[in-house]
Amino acid sequence: MNEVRVSIYEDNPMLRESLASLLKLKEGVHVIAAYENVLAAGSQVKVDKPDLLLMDIDMPGMTGIEAVRLIRSFNREVAILMLTVFDDNHHVFEAICGGASGYLLKKHISSRLFDAIDEVLAGGAPMSPSIARMVIGSMQTNTKDPNPYQLTPRELDILRSLSKGNSYKLISAESAISIDTVRTHIKKIYEKLHVHSQTEAVAKALNEKLV
């Protein structure tokens, strides 16, 4: 059996070292890197090629949630286990919707980390019952409402085109509208999806099957 390659993203140096030391006790696991932030997470994941990421949610410069979305834009295979201090349903739910594989409260690291790793590597999704209820509720909501963000048909067409990697110029030509009008529609799409960039919009559209 090949060793499981693990990268750690944690801004607290003591906890980062503790995680690395703890993982040395688990057979078959090899810590390949430990970083204090996720500012270069995209390139690091491409170079390091980890099987599992242990990622703090709250980090300076860029949050773990933003990093998950970025990583999922090019890598759907790596398992991502989020670490958080609080049982903050909103942020954990946001991370899971962004592509996280599961999460673990930091106060449970010493007693539950190994089980959580085994579960996530086996294809499971370790999470608390309250988060599981939120995920199920979201799925039910999306089933009842295929367009929960009230996007117009034109906005859905443009979002679909963005998801294919098309440029503003190409979208303009396809839709027979000016580039300025395309920009206006995209700005409205961002507002409705509560995102701030094309990458976030496309990731959300694909994760939530809006297109």
Notes on the structure:
This protein is of the alpha/beta class. It folds into 2 domains: 4-141, Response regulator (Rossmann fold, 3-Layer(aba) Sandwich), CATH 3.40.50; 153-207, Orthogonal Bundle (Arc Repressor Mutant, subunit A). The chain is built from 10 helices and 5 strands; from the N terminus they run βαβαβαβαβαααααα. It has a 5-stranded parallel beta sheet with strand order 2-1-3-4-5, with helices on both faces. Strand 3, helix 3 (64-72) and strand 4 form a beta-alpha-beta unit. Helix 3 runs parallel beside helix 4 and helix 3 (64-72) packs across helix 10 (198-207). The protein is elongated.
Please specify the SSE layout and strand pairing.
Elements: E1 4-9, H1 13-23, E2 29-35, H2 41-48, E3 52-56, H3 64-72, E4 79-84, H4 89-98, E5 102-105, H5 109-121, H6 129-144, H7 153-163, H8 168-175, H9 179-193, H10 198-207
Parallel strand pairs: 1-2, 1-3, 3-4, 4-5
Helix pairs in contact: 3-4, 3-10, 4-6, 7-9, 7-10, 8-9
CATH architecture group name of the largest domain? 3-Layer(aba) Sandwich
Reported for the largest beta sheet, the result is: 5 strands, parallel
The number of helical elements comes to 10
Following the backbone from N to C, one meets helices and strands in this order, namely: EHEHEHEHEHHHHHH
Radius of gyration: 19 Å
The tally of beta strands, per DSSP, is 5
Strand order of the largest sheet: 2-1-3-4-5
Beta-strand portion reads 5-15%
| Category by helix and strand content | alpha/beta
CATH superfamily of the largest domain: Response regulator
Give the integer mean of the pLDDT values.
88
* Poorly predicted sequence stretches spanning 5 or more consecutive residues: none
Shape: elongated
